[in-house]
Records
---
Amino acid sequence: MTTLALCPERAEPAQRIAGLAAEAMYREVTLTPKPGLVDRVSNGAHRDMDIRLFMASIRAISPWFAHFYAQGEASAGLPAPQTLWAIRPVGLACEQAMFDATGGINTHKGAIFSLGLLCAAAGRLANRTQRLTRQRLCRETSAICAGLVERELRSRTVAKTKGEQIFLTSGLSGARGEAESGFATVRRFGLPQWESALRQGLSQQEALLKMLLALMATNPDTNVVSRSGLKGLGYVQRYARRMLNCPSLSGEKLALALSNMDRALTRKNISPGGSADLLAVGWLLAHYPA
Protein backbone atom coordinates (compact mmCIF):
# COMPACT_ATOMS: atom_id res chain seq x y z
CA MET A 1 0.00 0.00 0.00
CA THR A 2 1.42 3.39 -0.96
CA THR A 3 1.46 6.48 1.22
CA LEU A 4 -0.92 9.22 0.13
CA ALA A 5 0.68 12.36 -1.27
CA LEU A 6 -1.33 14.85 0.75
CA CYS A 7 -1.06 18.60 0.12
CA PRO A 8 1.05 20.23 2.87
CA GLU A 9 -1.80 22.45 4.04
CA ARG A 10 -4.02 19.35 4.43
CA ALA A 11 -1.41 17.00 5.91
CA GLU A 12 -1.73 18.01 9.56
CA PRO A 13 -5.49 17.40 10.05
CA ALA A 14 -5.27 14.24 7.92
CA GLN A 15 -2.37 12.79 9.86
CA ARG A 16 -3.87 13.80 13.20
CA ILE A 17 -7.26 12.19 12.80
CA ALA A 18 -5.84 9.10 11.08
CA GLY A 19 -3.40 8.71 13.96
CA LEU A 20 -6.13 9.23 16.55
CA ALA A 21 -8.33 6.62 14.85
CA ALA A 22 -5.55 4.06 15.02
CA GLU A 23 -4.72 5.00 18.61
CA ALA A 24 -8.40 4.77 19.55
CA MET A 25 -8.48 1.08 18.58
CA TYR A 26 -5.32 0.46 20.60
CA ARG A 27 -6.71 2.29 23.65
CA GLU A 28 -9.94 0.30 23.45
CA VAL A 29 -8.36 -3.16 23.29
CA THR A 30 -5.72 -2.49 25.95
CA LEU A 31 -8.20 -0.98 28.41
CA THR A 32 -8.45 -3.51 31.25
CA PRO A 33 -10.63 -4.97 32.69
CA LYS A 34 -13.48 -4.78 30.17
CA PRO A 35 -16.59 -6.91 30.80
CA GLY A 36 -17.09 -9.63 28.18
CA LEU A 37 -14.46 -8.11 25.88
CA VAL A 38 -10.89 -8.88 24.85
CA ASP A 39 -8.33 -6.99 26.95
CA ARG A 40 -4.82 -7.46 28.34
CA VAL A 41 -5.75 -10.29 30.70
CA SER A 42 -8.93 -11.86 29.31
CA ASN A 43 -10.54 -12.92 26.05
CA GLY A 44 -13.96 -12.19 27.55
CA ALA A 45 -16.75 -14.05 25.79
CA HIS A 46 -14.58 -14.66 22.71
CA ARG A 47 -13.04 -18.07 22.11
CA ASP A 48 -11.56 -17.18 18.71
CA MET A 49 -9.91 -13.87 19.63
CA ASP A 50 -7.15 -12.58 21.88
CA ILE A 51 -5.20 -9.36 22.23
CA ARG A 52 -2.45 -10.50 19.85
CA LEU A 53 -5.04 -11.00 17.11
CA PHE A 54 -6.45 -7.54 17.80
CA MET A 55 -2.99 -6.00 17.59
CA ALA A 56 -2.40 -7.67 14.22
CA SER A 57 -5.76 -6.35 13.06
CA ILE A 58 -4.95 -2.80 14.20
CA ARG A 59 -1.64 -2.85 12.32
CA ALA A 60 -3.44 -3.93 9.14
CA ILE A 61 -6.25 -1.39 9.45
CA SER A 62 -4.40 1.73 10.59
CA PRO A 63 -2.85 2.78 7.23
CA TRP A 64 -6.30 2.97 5.64
CA PHE A 65 -7.64 5.83 7.77
CA ALA A 66 -5.72 8.38 5.69
CA HIS A 67 -7.51 6.99 2.62
CA PHE A 68 -10.91 7.53 4.24
CA TYR A 69 -9.85 11.13 4.89
CA ALA A 70 -8.63 11.59 1.32
CA GLN A 71 -11.89 10.28 -0.16
CA GLY A 72 -13.87 12.58 2.12
CA GLU A 73 -11.73 15.51 1.03
CA ALA A 74 -12.08 14.60 -2.65
CA SER A 75 -15.88 14.34 -2.40
CA ALA A 76 -16.37 17.52 -0.36
CA GLY A 77 -18.05 19.25 -3.30
CA LEU A 78 -20.68 16.51 -3.59
CA PRO A 79 -23.83 16.13 -1.48
CA ALA A 80 -22.84 14.54 1.82
CA PRO A 81 -24.60 11.16 1.26
CA GLN A 82 -22.55 10.57 -1.89
CA THR A 83 -19.45 10.41 0.29
CA LEU A 84 -20.75 7.12 1.67
CA TRP A 85 -20.47 5.58 -1.80
CA ALA A 86 -17.10 7.23 -2.40
CA ILE A 87 -15.57 5.63 0.70
CA ARG A 88 -17.21 2.22 0.28
CA PRO A 89 -14.32 0.76 -1.80
CA VAL A 90 -11.86 1.98 0.85
CA GLY A 91 -13.97 0.34 3.55
CA LEU A 92 -14.12 -2.96 1.69
CA ALA A 93 -10.37 -2.94 1.07
CA CYS A 94 -9.73 -2.09 4.73
CA GLU A 95 -11.97 -4.96 5.86
CA GLN A 96 -10.12 -7.33 3.54
CA ALA A 97 -6.81 -6.23 5.07
CA MET A 98 -8.28 -7.00 8.49
CA PHE A 99 -9.48 -10.45 7.42
CA ASP A 100 -6.10 -11.21 5.84
CA ALA A 101 -4.39 -10.34 9.13
CA THR A 102 -6.82 -12.28 11.32
CA GLY A 103 -7.42 -15.37 9.24
CA GLY A 104 -10.98 -14.34 8.45
CA ILE A 105 -12.02 -13.30 11.97
CA ASN A 106 -14.02 -10.08 12.36
CA THR A 107 -12.17 -8.09 15.00
CA HIS A 108 -12.87 -4.50 13.95
CA LYS A 109 -15.59 -4.26 11.30
CA GLY A 110 -17.65 -1.92 13.46
CA ALA A 111 -14.64 0.24 14.29
CA ILE A 112 -13.68 0.49 10.62
CA PHE A 113 -17.20 1.72 9.84
CA SER A 114 -17.40 4.33 12.60
CA LEU A 115 -13.82 5.59 12.62
CA GLY A 116 -13.64 5.54 8.83
CA LEU A 117 -16.73 7.75 8.67
CA LEU A 118 -15.19 10.23 11.10
CA CYS A 119 -12.02 10.40 9.01
CA ALA A 120 -14.08 11.00 5.85
CA ALA A 121 -16.09 13.67 7.65
CA ALA A 122 -12.84 15.35 8.69
CA GLY A 123 -11.67 15.37 5.07
CA ARG A 124 -14.87 17.08 3.91
CA LEU A 125 -14.63 19.69 6.66
CA ALA A 126 -10.95 20.38 6.06
CA ASN A 127 -11.59 20.85 2.35
CA ARG A 128 -14.03 23.59 3.29
CA THR A 129 -11.41 25.03 5.71
CA GLN A 130 -13.72 24.42 8.66
CA ARG A 131 -12.11 23.83 12.04
CA LEU A 132 -12.52 20.27 13.27
CA THR A 133 -14.71 20.09 16.38
CA ARG A 134 -16.76 17.31 17.93
CA GLN A 135 -19.99 18.96 16.87
CA ARG A 136 -18.91 19.42 13.27
CA LEU A 137 -17.43 15.93 12.95
CA CYS A 138 -20.61 14.35 14.31
CA ARG A 139 -22.92 16.58 12.28
CA GLU A 140 -20.99 15.82 9.08
CA THR A 141 -21.05 12.09 9.82
CA SER A 142 -24.81 12.31 10.30
CA ALA A 143 -25.15 14.10 6.97
CA ILE A 144 -23.03 11.49 5.21
CA CYS A 145 -25.25 8.74 6.62
CA ALA A 146 -28.58 10.48 5.99
CA GLY A 147 -31.16 7.87 4.99
CA LEU A 148 -28.86 4.94 5.70
CA VAL A 149 -31.21 3.18 8.13
CA GLU A 150 -34.13 3.64 5.74
CA ARG A 151 -32.20 2.26 2.74
CA GLU A 152 -30.37 -0.61 4.38
CA LEU A 153 -32.70 -1.67 7.20
CA ARG A 154 -36.24 -0.27 7.17
CA SER A 155 -36.88 -0.97 3.49
CA ARG A 156 -35.87 -4.64 3.79
CA THR A 157 -38.67 -7.16 4.11
CA VAL A 158 -36.39 -10.20 4.21
CA ALA A 159 -33.36 -10.20 6.52
CA LYS A 160 -30.12 -11.41 4.91
CA THR A 161 -27.77 -10.44 7.74
CA LYS A 162 -27.88 -10.67 11.52
CA GLY A 163 -28.13 -6.87 11.75
CA GLU A 164 -31.11 -6.82 9.39
CA GLN A 165 -32.78 -9.62 11.35
CA ILE A 166 -32.34 -7.75 14.64
CA PHE A 167 -33.83 -4.60 13.12
CA LEU A 168 -36.84 -6.48 11.75
CA THR A 169 -37.52 -8.17 15.09
CA SER A 170 -36.61 -5.42 17.57
CA GLY A 171 -36.20 -2.16 15.66
CA LEU A 172 -32.59 -1.69 16.82
CA SER A 173 -30.51 -0.04 14.10
CA GLY A 174 -27.04 -0.75 15.50
CA ALA A 175 -23.96 0.98 14.13
CA ARG A 176 -25.88 2.43 11.17
CA GLY A 177 -28.36 4.19 13.42
CA GLU A 178 -25.67 5.46 15.75
CA ALA A 179 -23.68 6.93 12.85
CA GLU A 180 -26.78 8.47 11.28
CA SER A 181 -27.57 10.11 14.63
CA GLY A 182 -24.09 11.66 14.69
CA PHE A 183 -23.04 9.29 17.50
CA ALA A 184 -25.77 10.57 19.83
CA THR A 185 -25.10 7.92 22.50
CA VAL A 186 -21.44 8.93 22.68
CA ARG A 187 -22.29 12.64 22.86
CA ARG A 188 -25.14 12.33 25.37
CA PHE A 189 -23.74 9.72 27.72
CA GLY A 190 -20.18 8.60 26.96
CA LEU A 191 -18.32 11.91 26.73
CA PRO A 192 -20.13 13.55 29.70
CA GLN A 193 -19.16 10.56 31.86
CA TRP A 194 -15.53 10.82 30.67
CA GLU A 195 -15.39 14.53 31.45
CA SER A 196 -17.06 14.08 34.84
CA ALA A 197 -14.57 11.37 35.81
CA LEU A 198 -11.61 13.57 34.85
CA ARG A 199 -13.03 16.50 36.85
CA GLN A 200 -13.22 14.19 39.86
CA GLY A 201 -9.49 13.52 39.56
CA LEU A 202 -9.72 10.00 38.13
CA SER A 203 -6.99 8.80 35.80
CA GLN A 204 -7.59 8.64 32.05
CA GLN A 205 -7.80 4.84 32.28
CA GLU A 206 -10.48 5.06 34.97
CA ALA A 207 -12.30 7.75 32.99
CA LEU A 208 -12.30 5.45 29.94
CA LEU A 209 -13.72 2.62 32.04
CA LYS A 210 -16.45 4.94 33.31
CA MET A 211 -17.18 6.00 29.73
CA LEU A 212 -17.48 2.35 28.74
CA LEU A 213 -19.95 1.73 31.57
CA ALA A 214 -22.00 4.75 30.50
CA LEU A 215 -22.15 3.40 26.95
CA MET A 216 -23.05 -0.11 28.12
CA ALA A 217 -25.81 1.37 30.29
CA THR A 218 -27.42 3.27 27.40
CA ASN A 219 -26.38 1.76 24.07
CA PRO A 220 -28.92 -0.62 22.46
CA ASP A 221 -25.98 -2.85 21.55
CA THR A 222 -26.91 -5.22 18.73
CA ASN A 223 -23.78 -7.29 19.45
CA VAL A 224 -25.32 -8.13 22.81
CA VAL A 225 -28.74 -8.79 21.27
CA SER A 226 -27.17 -11.07 18.67
CA ARG A 227 -25.69 -13.26 21.39
CA SER A 228 -28.29 -13.11 24.15
CA GLY A 229 -31.41 -11.33 22.91
CA LEU A 230 -33.19 -8.36 24.43
CA LYS A 231 -33.11 -10.05 27.83
CA GLY A 232 -29.32 -10.07 27.72
CA LEU A 233 -29.28 -6.40 26.67
CA GLY A 234 -31.45 -5.49 29.64
CA TYR A 235 -29.12 -7.42 31.94
CA VAL A 236 -26.04 -5.56 30.67
CA GLN A 237 -27.69 -2.14 30.88
CA ARG A 238 -29.00 -2.70 34.42
CA TYR A 239 -25.65 -4.04 35.61
CA ALA A 240 -23.77 -1.05 34.14
CA ARG A 241 -26.25 1.43 35.63
CA ARG A 242 -25.85 -0.11 39.09
CA MET A 243 -22.10 0.35 38.88
CA LEU A 244 -22.41 3.95 37.71
CA ASN A 245 -24.71 4.65 40.64
CA CYS A 246 -21.84 3.91 43.02
CA PRO A 247 -20.07 7.31 43.02
CA SER A 248 -17.15 6.09 45.14
CA LEU A 249 -16.26 3.31 42.71
CA SER A 250 -12.68 3.99 41.59
CA GLY A 251 -9.19 2.55 41.77
CA GLU A 252 -8.94 -1.04 42.95
CA LYS A 253 -12.65 -1.16 43.78
CA LEU A 254 -13.55 -0.23 40.20
CA ALA A 255 -11.13 -2.80 38.78
CA LEU A 256 -12.55 -5.52 41.06
CA ALA A 257 -16.15 -4.66 40.20
CA LEU A 258 -15.36 -4.73 36.47
CA SER A 259 -13.54 -8.07 36.82
CA ASN A 260 -16.64 -9.50 38.52
CA MET A 261 -18.79 -8.11 35.71
CA ASP A 262 -16.42 -9.63 33.16
CA ARG A 263 -16.88 -13.06 34.70
CA ALA A 264 -20.66 -12.61 34.80
CA LEU A 265 -20.90 -11.56 31.14
CA THR A 266 -18.45 -14.22 30.01
CA ARG A 267 -20.52 -16.92 31.70
CA LYS A 268 -23.53 -15.68 29.76
CA ASN A 269 -21.51 -15.43 26.51
CA ILE A 270 -22.23 -11.69 26.28
CA SER A 271 -19.85 -9.34 24.49
CA PRO A 272 -20.80 -5.63 24.32
CA GLY A 273 -18.77 -5.11 21.15
CA GLY A 274 -20.93 -2.25 19.92
CA SER A 275 -20.17 -0.27 23.06
CA ALA A 276 -16.47 -1.05 22.62
CA ASP A 277 -16.61 0.49 19.14
CA LEU A 278 -18.34 3.57 20.53
CA LEU A 279 -15.66 3.83 23.22
CA ALA A 280 -13.07 4.21 20.45
CA VAL A 281 -15.27 6.88 18.85
CA GLY A 282 -15.55 8.68 22.19
CA TRP A 283 -11.81 8.59 22.79
CA LEU A 284 -11.16 10.12 19.36
CA LEU A 285 -13.81 12.84 19.75
CA ALA A 286 -12.47 13.72 23.20
CA HIS A 287 -9.34 15.04 21.49
CA TYR A 288 -11.26 17.76 19.64
CA PRO A 289 -12.93 20.85 21.11
CA ALA A 290 -16.67 20.64 21.63
Note: Confidence is low (pLDDT under 50) at residues 1-11.
---
Amino acid sequence: MLLLIALGANVGSRAANLQAALAALTAEVGSLVKCSAFYETAPEGFQSPHAFLNAVAHFETTLSAADILQITQAIERRLGRTTKSQDGIYHDRPIDIDILALGDTICHTQDLTLPHPHIAERRFVLEPLTEILPTWRHPLTHATSTEMLKGYEQNTN
Protein backbone atom coordinates (compact mmCIF):
# COMPACT_ATOMS: atom_id res chain seq x y z
CA MET A 1 0.00 0.00 0.00
CA LEU A 2 1.20 3.55 -0.73
CA LEU A 3 2.64 5.32 2.29
CA LEU A 4 3.59 9.00 2.16
CA ILE A 5 5.94 10.33 4.83
CA ALA A 6 7.07 13.92 5.41
CA LEU A 7 10.45 14.42 7.01
CA GLY A 8 12.03 17.52 8.49
CA ALA A 9 15.07 18.49 10.54
CA ASN A 10 16.33 21.87 11.69
CA VAL A 11 19.07 21.15 14.23
CA GLY A 12 22.13 18.94 14.18
CA SER A 13 23.32 17.35 10.95
CA ARG A 14 20.07 17.95 9.10
CA ALA A 15 20.83 16.03 5.90
CA ALA A 16 22.40 13.15 7.83
CA ASN A 17 19.34 13.02 10.09
CA LEU A 18 17.00 12.83 7.09
CA GLN A 19 19.16 10.11 5.52
CA ALA A 20 19.22 8.14 8.79
CA ALA A 21 15.43 8.41 9.07
CA LEU A 22 14.98 7.23 5.47
CA ALA A 23 17.28 4.26 6.09
CA ALA A 24 15.43 3.32 9.28
CA LEU A 25 12.03 3.68 7.59
CA THR A 26 13.18 1.49 4.70
CA ALA A 27 14.38 -1.16 7.15
CA GLU A 28 11.29 -1.07 9.38
CA VAL A 29 8.28 0.18 7.40
CA GLY A 30 8.65 -0.92 3.78
CA SER A 31 10.44 -0.34 0.54
CA LEU A 32 11.33 3.20 -0.47
CA VAL A 33 9.86 3.93 -3.90
CA LYS A 34 11.01 7.53 -4.27
CA CYS A 35 12.21 10.42 -2.16
CA SER A 36 12.11 14.09 -3.10
CA ALA A 37 15.05 16.42 -3.04
CA PHE A 38 15.77 18.08 0.29
CA TYR A 39 14.16 21.55 0.49
CA GLU A 40 15.48 24.23 2.82
CA THR A 41 12.64 26.15 4.43
CA ALA A 42 12.06 28.66 7.20
CA PRO A 43 10.38 27.36 10.36
CA GLU A 44 6.59 27.66 10.31
CA GLY A 45 4.50 28.13 13.43
CA PHE A 46 7.41 29.14 15.67
CA GLN A 47 10.48 31.38 15.75
CA SER A 48 13.91 29.84 15.31
CA PRO A 49 17.19 30.86 13.70
CA HIS A 50 17.53 27.31 12.37
CA ALA A 51 16.21 26.56 8.86
CA PHE A 52 14.64 23.19 8.11
CA LEU A 53 15.51 20.61 5.53
CA ASN A 54 12.30 18.93 4.40
CA ALA A 55 11.48 16.01 2.12
CA VAL A 56 8.61 13.72 1.24
CA ALA A 57 9.12 10.01 0.68
CA HIS A 58 6.89 7.41 -0.97
CA PHE A 59 7.08 3.91 0.49
CA GLU A 60 5.21 0.68 -0.15
CA THR A 61 4.13 -1.05 3.05
CA THR A 62 1.91 -3.79 4.39
CA LEU A 63 1.79 -2.33 7.91
CA SER A 64 -1.17 -0.74 9.65
CA ALA A 65 -1.33 2.98 10.41
CA ALA A 66 -0.97 2.26 14.15
CA ASP A 67 2.15 0.15 13.56
CA ILE A 68 3.67 2.82 11.30
CA LEU A 69 3.01 5.53 13.89
CA GLN A 70 4.69 3.46 16.60
CA ILE A 71 7.73 2.86 14.37
CA THR A 72 8.06 6.49 13.26
CA GLN A 73 7.93 7.72 16.85
CA ALA A 74 10.58 5.19 17.88
CA ILE A 75 12.83 6.31 15.01
CA GLU A 76 12.40 9.94 16.06
CA ARG A 77 13.47 9.06 19.62
CA ARG A 78 16.48 7.07 18.39
CA LEU A 79 17.57 10.03 16.25
CA GLY A 80 17.45 12.40 19.21
CA ARG A 81 13.98 13.88 19.32
CA THR A 82 13.03 14.24 22.97
CA THR A 83 9.82 16.30 22.78
CA LYS A 84 6.80 16.18 20.49
CA SER A 85 4.91 19.25 19.38
CA GLN A 86 1.56 19.60 21.08
CA ASP A 87 -1.41 21.93 20.69
CA GLY A 88 0.24 23.86 17.87
CA ILE A 89 3.37 24.61 19.92
CA TYR A 90 6.43 23.66 17.87
CA HIS A 91 10.12 23.36 18.74
CA ASP A 92 13.48 22.91 17.03
CA ARG A 93 14.07 19.23 16.32
CA PRO A 94 16.72 16.92 14.92
CA ILE A 95 14.02 14.95 13.10
CA ASP A 96 10.30 15.10 12.48
CA ILE A 97 8.50 12.25 10.76
CA ASP A 98 4.85 12.74 9.80
CA ILE A 99 2.59 10.20 8.16
CA LEU A 100 0.83 12.10 5.37
CA ALA A 101 -1.26 9.29 3.90
CA LEU A 102 -1.61 5.52 3.88
CA GLY A 103 -3.38 4.48 0.69
CA ASP A 104 -6.97 5.73 0.91
CA THR A 105 -7.11 5.21 4.67
CA ILE A 106 -9.22 7.72 6.54
CA CYS A 107 -8.50 7.67 10.24
CA HIS A 108 -9.14 10.04 13.12
CA THR A 109 -7.98 8.91 16.54
CA GLN A 110 -6.45 10.72 19.49
CA ASP A 111 -2.99 9.76 18.21
CA LEU A 112 -3.33 9.94 14.42
CA THR A 113 -5.35 11.63 11.70
CA LEU A 114 -5.07 10.37 8.12
CA PRO A 115 -4.71 11.87 5.69
CA HIS A 116 -2.63 14.43 7.58
CA PRO A 117 -4.93 17.40 8.22
CA HIS A 118 -2.43 20.07 7.12
CA ILE A 119 -1.14 18.71 3.80
CA ALA A 120 -2.73 21.47 1.72
CA GLU A 121 -1.52 24.22 4.08
CA ARG A 122 2.21 23.54 4.02
CA ARG A 123 4.47 24.46 1.14
CA PHE A 124 7.26 22.39 2.74
CA VAL A 125 5.04 19.33 2.19
CA LEU A 126 3.37 20.28 -1.09
CA GLU A 127 6.52 21.10 -3.08
CA PRO A 128 8.37 17.83 -2.38
CA LEU A 129 5.13 15.83 -2.66
CA THR A 130 4.39 17.37 -6.06
CA GLU A 131 7.97 16.68 -7.15
CA ILE A 132 7.61 12.92 -6.62
CA LEU A 133 3.86 12.37 -7.10
CA PRO A 134 2.27 15.26 -9.01
CA THR A 135 -0.95 13.32 -9.69
CA TRP A 136 -1.45 11.82 -6.21
CA ARG A 137 -5.02 12.48 -5.04
CA HIS A 138 -5.99 13.45 -1.52
CA PRO A 139 -8.38 10.74 -0.25
CA LEU A 140 -10.92 13.27 1.09
CA THR A 141 -10.75 16.27 -1.25
CA HIS A 142 -9.67 14.32 -4.35
CA ALA A 143 -7.40 17.23 -5.29
CA THR A 144 -4.05 16.25 -6.79
CA SER A 145 -0.83 17.35 -5.14
CA THR A 146 -0.27 19.71 -8.10
CA GLU A 147 -3.72 21.26 -7.61
CA MET A 148 -3.15 21.66 -3.87
CA LEU A 149 0.20 23.38 -4.49
CA LYS A 150 -1.38 25.77 -7.02
CA GLY A 151 -4.17 26.52 -4.55
CA TYR A 152 -1.66 27.16 -1.79
CA GLU A 153 0.31 29.53 -4.02
CA GLN A 154 -2.84 31.42 -5.03
CA ASN A 155 -3.91 31.80 -1.38
CA THR A 156 -0.51 33.05 -0.20
CA ASN A 157 0.19 35.58 -2.98
Note: The chain has four helices and seven strands.
